[in-house]
Amino acid sequence: MKVFVLNKRRAVIYLSMVLCAVLLTVVGFSTSTSVYNDTTDKLLPIYSVEKGSEKVCALTFDAAWDDNDTDILIDILKKYNAPATFFMVGSWVEKYPDSVKKFHDAGHEIMNHSDTHPHIDQLSDAKIAQELKNCSDKIEAVTGVRPMLFRGPYGEYNNAVIREATNQNMFTVQWNIDSLDWKNLSADEITTRVTNRIAPGSIILFHNGAKNTPEALPKILEKLSAAGYKFVKASDLIYKENYTIDHSGKQIAE
Fold this sequence. Notes:
The protein folds into 2 domains: 1-41; 48-253, Glycoside hydrolase/deacetylase (TIM Barrel), CATH 3.20.20.
């Protein structure tokens, strides 16, 4: 019978081989895990923007209801030198083109909020593309400017929605402060919600046609102005290139 003698030299060689095999296994596992994560990561829209101590924020309004407060909102925003971003549904643009033009001519920007306000994350890729394109076409026909920002109806989105917005040269934008004006909160409640949550780089959500927004808005603008905040359009708040978006949706310049 042949006896295998494991001397010191052979032991070192054997141990080295074992360690190499283990290392290769770990590296291979890590690589395959990384690839798996890269293909399944959820894309995120922009919820807010990292601005350090620079006190800037964006006022945004979703327009899908009536247009009764168009002139009121324009007057309030003008008084406080507060440009805003209006995310408009295509059917609203089609129904109220004069209001769309009024907002645009007053210096506010008009952006894409889908064409018919569907649950867009439940649509096929083709229907998502059509929703975005139709809305942008209608806005451009009235204002002469094609939207560069998109916000999903009900705040809904998925990877397909964000990818299609990108394909149509739009950034997908959400918010990090919801005024909850759509719940018919009182003007004081709306004011408190917004002013207590404000931070540099915030994106604030309001709605046109909300019952108490016209009453709350002057109070909010006065308080934020007194705190040193400057109001900018959402397209001026965000970074267009060389940025990352963290797990909370905050856009950070690289």
